[in-house]
TrEMBL record:
GO terms for cellular component: membrane. Gene3D superfamilies: Alpha-tocopherol transfer, CRAL-TRIO lipid binding domain. One of its GO terms (molecular function) is phosphatidylinositol bisphosphate binding. This is Alpha-tocopherol transfer protein. Residues 73-235 form the CRAL-TRIO domain.
Amino acid sequence: MTIEVEKKLDEMELWLKTQTQLPQKIDRWMLKRFLLCMEGDKDAAQNLLITNYKMRNKYDHIFIKRDPKYESSEKVVKVVDFLTLPGYTPEKYKLILYRLADTDPDKFNVNEVFQVFFMMVDSRFRELCNENAIGEIVVFDMTGFSLRHLSKFSLGTIRLFMKYIQEAHVGRVKGVHVINAASFLDKVMFLVRPFLKGELINVLHFHMPNTETAYKFFPHEMLPDEYGGKAGKLQDLREFWVKKLMENRDFIIDESRWKMNS
């Protein structure tokens, strides 16, 4: 870490002490993640931190009142895969794969999925705090995603998710790729498009089944074995990240890290 970054982190720690509305249990490595996300712009990093925590507290049923050991959480990790894949793209981006592990719509609860999604994001946030990725590419595999799944999404839930990803997420999204796109993609976009901002629209790509167009954007070999890649088996990757989630449980459920002072 450069002397300049260390100096900015020192300044951010002093600034944090003046922000009595924020929890004071925000570690230096967390401040570093905000700073690097904003490419060293300290003021922007501080603004992002405030935005992030305000959103967490406004929607505390998703971001604060949570636990990987909830029965609902344990069910979700059997239904949806949240997989940060090994290695980097040539541009030094991480590749993150989201997919249905169980395609039964009756087992799919949107609010519970989003709660676990953000716990996984925070677990990854901590787990990869010393890595040097400069961005991330998100891959959504629509295999098995049906209209019955889609019917479970409310506009409020979609608005929350899109607002967080575009305004409060501590990461630079360099690409979003929907692979094995469903025939009803137009219905998905009808719901999502009102909440999409230009920056995300510009990196959003759709790829039909049995095509290889996605590999123009990231190496095929970075995907799991079942996709023809070399990242390892889905089951092993799933078990790895669920284990990490449980290892980071104390960090995740500690409300003194996340709850703002009223």
